[in-house]
Specification:
single chain; 317 residues; alpha/beta; Alpha-Beta Plaits; 2 domains; five-stranded parallel sheet; 11 helices; 45% helix; globular; disordered C terminus
């Protein structure tokens, strides 16, 4: 039985329009959503603008070739989990090795059998899902990947800043407008975090989705507060558009609580707990999470978007 594609998105990049047509004719009937790029430069732009679930790159293309695109993807912390299949017109071992060294997850030799291509697509997507444990809604790395990345960064002994991020009053919004609108808020919040990391981060930042309306972002100590400020600025600018006009104009939701009483619920805001090893060493994920929980509890006392950072310095005595 053929696995279901579940609407997964695939970008195909090849300068040959006939081959793009062939790939589309194989992938779309299987349930995949396909987009096309004519060369490596266009592919990289499209991937950065709207990351697909999988990229199929031709080995040789005008401008950036397949391995060069793959290298740039894998060097980008926010994109490095994107799986890549390389297409090559040759069967020489060195081309396959070159593609794998560039970070490709698999390769297919042209001409190919449609069923072989589909089998490799399913295999790569399945393997990536297992390795990444990605959140199905945002496609961001989940808890297992978050744990591994946090352990790796703690062990590296470099400057580390961990932002625990969640939304204030999201449950009331979700109950009032329904799960579809709530899911849209979660996806747009993920986009805000990614854009903030891209514009203000270190270039090696990590954005993960803990679950629900809880996220985590890792960056450097020097960049952390700029990232936090940008998140708040972008999120607050987005919030009014999430509401119906009457609620937006009023500035709050009229929502019934568990007792059936109508209450005024302020618009969504975002709370960020910023944990760093600037003044105290961070030695294990549990310690980071504990400090983050304490800071987030403090942040939620405010009725506005805010980030809080532990500023207690070690005593000199």
């Amino acid at each position: 039985m053929t696995p279901a594609a579940n609407g997964a998105t695939i970008l195909i990049a090849d300068d040959d329009p006939d081959l793009r047509d062939i790939l589309r004719s194989v992938l779309e009937p299987a349930g995949f959503l396909v987009s096309e790029a004519r060369d490596g430069d266009a592919a990289l732009r499209m991937i950065r603008q709207s990351p697909p679930d999988l990229a199929i790159l031709d080995f040789m293309m005008p401008g950036l070739n397949g391995p060069q695109v793959c290298e740039q993807i894998k060097q980008d912390t926010l994109l490095r989990h994107l799986p890549v299949i390389m297409l090559t017109g040759k069967s020489e071992v060195q081309d396959k090795v070159y593609g794998i060294h560039a970070g490709a997850d698999d390769y297919v030799v042209k001409p190919f059998e449609p069923q072989e291509l589909l089998a490799r697509v399913y295999m790569v997507l399945r393997r990536t899902a297992i390795d990444l444990e990605a959140n199905p809604l945002t496609k961001l790395p989940g808890n297992l990947s978050i744990q591994r990345e946090l352990e790796r960064r703690i062990a590296s002994s470099g400057g580390l800043a961990v932002c625990y991020i969640d939304l204030d009053r999201f449950k009331a919004f979700n109950d009032h407008y329904g799960f579809e609108r709530g899911d849209q808020v979660i996806k747009q919040t993920a986009e805000v975090l990614i854009l903030a990391a891209q514009s203000q981060g270190s270039g090696h930042d990590f954005v993960g989705h803990i679950g629900g309306d809880d996220f985590l972002l890792m960056t450097t100590v020097e960049r952390a507060e700029g990232v936090c400020r940008t998140i708040i600025e972008r999120f607050d600018a987005m919030v009014p558009q999430l509401y119906d006009e009457a609620d937006r104009t009023r500035g709050y939701l009229l929502h019934k609580d568990r007792k059936g009483q109508e209450v005024k619920v302020p618009l969504l805001s975002i709370s960020i707990a910023l944990v760093t090893n600037e003044w105290h060493p961070l030695t294990h994920p549990g310690q980071v999470a504990k400090i983050g929980a304490e800071l987030k509890a403090y942040a939620k006392q405010f009725d506005r978007s805010i980030y809080v950072k532990e500023r207690r310095q070690p005593s000199s005595g």
